[in-house]
Amino acid sequence: MSATPQESASQSVHQTDKEQSLIKITTIIYALQAASFIFGITYIVAVIINYVKKDDVKGTWLESHFTWQRRTFWYSLLWGIIGAILAFFVVGIFILIADGIWVIYRIVKGWLNLSDKKKMYA
């Protein structure tokens, strides 16, 4: 049995609504990551939302953004810890600065690709 044109249109609208909702969540996560430069806790909130909504984006073009956001968090945390430990030897300060610049780059690149509705890693 094939769907009637009305059912197809309804499914299309539903898909668009769902996609719009997921785009909004992805945008919120990028915004929370950016806000973490002022309010550090928002970085943790962002990654928690990312993990909670991970299954909702599975198989969509937004899945690549969620992977990008998680990797940004975990690698920046790793380099942040290494930088903090090595800050006693001055080199860590440069690692922390580089880490901050890298996070800004990742947020900007991801957000721009999201606004253009492009996948990451494409």
Defining traits:
single chain, 122 residues, mainly alpha, 76% helix, 0% strand
Average pLDDT score: 91
Taken from the alpha-carbon principal axes, the silhouette is elongated
Which quaternary structure do these chains form?
single chain
Percent range for β-strand residues? under 5%
As a whole number of angstroms, the C-alpha radius of gyration is 18 Å
Largest sheet: none
Broad structural category: mainly alpha
Helix content: over 70%
Total domain modules: 1
Structure write-up:
It is a single chain. The protein has 122 residues and is mostly helical. The protein has one domain. Helix content is 76%, strand content 0%. It is built from four helices and no strands. It has helices at residues 5-35, 41-53, 63-86, 91-115. Helix 1 packs parallel to helix 3 and helix 2 (41-53) runs antiparallel to helix 3. It starts with a helix and ends in a 7-residue tail after the last helix. The model has no long low-confidence stretch (mean pLDDT 91).
